Amino acid sequence: MPNHYIRRLLWLVAGMLVSAVGITMMLQANIGLEPWSVLQQGLAQALGITYGTASMIVGAAAIGAAMLCGESFGFGTVINIILCAVFIDGLLWLGWIPQMHSLLTGLALLLGGLELLALGTWMYMKSALGAGPRDALMVALARKTGRSVGLCRATVEIFVIIAGFLLGGQVGIGTVICAVGLGSLFNLNFHLLHFHAAELHQENVAETLRYLRESRKKS
Questions:
Q1: What secondary structure, in 3-state letters, does 107-142 show?
Q2: How many other C-beta atoms are found inside a 10 Å radius of the C-beta of residue 127?
Q3: What angle do CA 40, 130, 143 make, to 5 degrees?
Q4: CB atoms within 10 A of CB 5
Q5: What is the DSSP letter of 95?
Q6: How far apart are CA 180 and CA 161, in angstroms?
């Protein structure tokens, strides 16, 4: 495997770990979760499975729906679904991040988790090995409906929150903060890091395999 692919894989894995720490902090903040986490927590409670397993199920469903809408995915997408879930379950099992029981400490942990999630997403996207499953779904829906990605995201996340809440997921002030501020926080981090996500091409599986075959022939 070419060295630059190894570096990209390292960026991907590091991004998954940082994101997992951020998501675990948000879970342990105990003041409400971001929309997809509400669904995943509710699903975990309803089915008696771990949060990570629920995350895999939701991620796989999201990428499956995106594929039905004609969207492709990369190896990084699959690694995202599996590895982030494993890291989150591992961190919850280790118990290194305690659960908060007051609004002030919960807010502090939530905001710290949001920042780490933004940084982890930057690291993951920087690898350019495939869009995240939920992002791929939003893009696919936008192309299919002719609506903006922002509108599709907002619409889907409303249904996701409702479904998660009905399943027992935690909705609270943290959910509002995430829904309102997460996009702006991502944009701020990307601006400070001079990262232009829209200009970066995310490789799909076919492109990666083709490049690796060509590299093998040249070596």
A1: HHHHHHHHHHHHHHHHHHHHHCCCCCHHHHHHHHHH
A2: 26
A3: 80
A4: 16
A5: T
A6: 14
End-to-end CA distance of the chain: 10
* Dihedral sign, Cα of residue 103, residue 168, residue 138, residue 91: positive
Which positions of the chain have pLDDT values less than 50?
Answer: none
10-47: buried (b, 16+ CB within 10 Å) or exposed (e) per residue?
Answer: ebbbbbbbbbbbbbbbbbbbbbbbbbbbbbbbbbbbee
Give the pair of three-digit tokens for residue 39. Answer: 């669904």
Helix (H, G, I), strand (E, B) or coil at 194: coil
Mean of all residue pLDDT scores within the chain: 91
Can you list the alpha helix ranges (DSSP code H) found in 51-102?
51-68, 75-94
Q: Are 161 and 87 in contact (CB under 8 A)?
A: no
Q: What is the pLDDT of residues 132-156, one digit of tens each?
A: 898 888 878 888 888 877 788 888 8
In tens, the pLDDT along 171-204 reads 999 999 998 888 888 889 988 999 887 788 889 8
State residue 148 phi and psi, 5-degree precision: -70, 155
Query: The pTM is what?
Result: 0.92
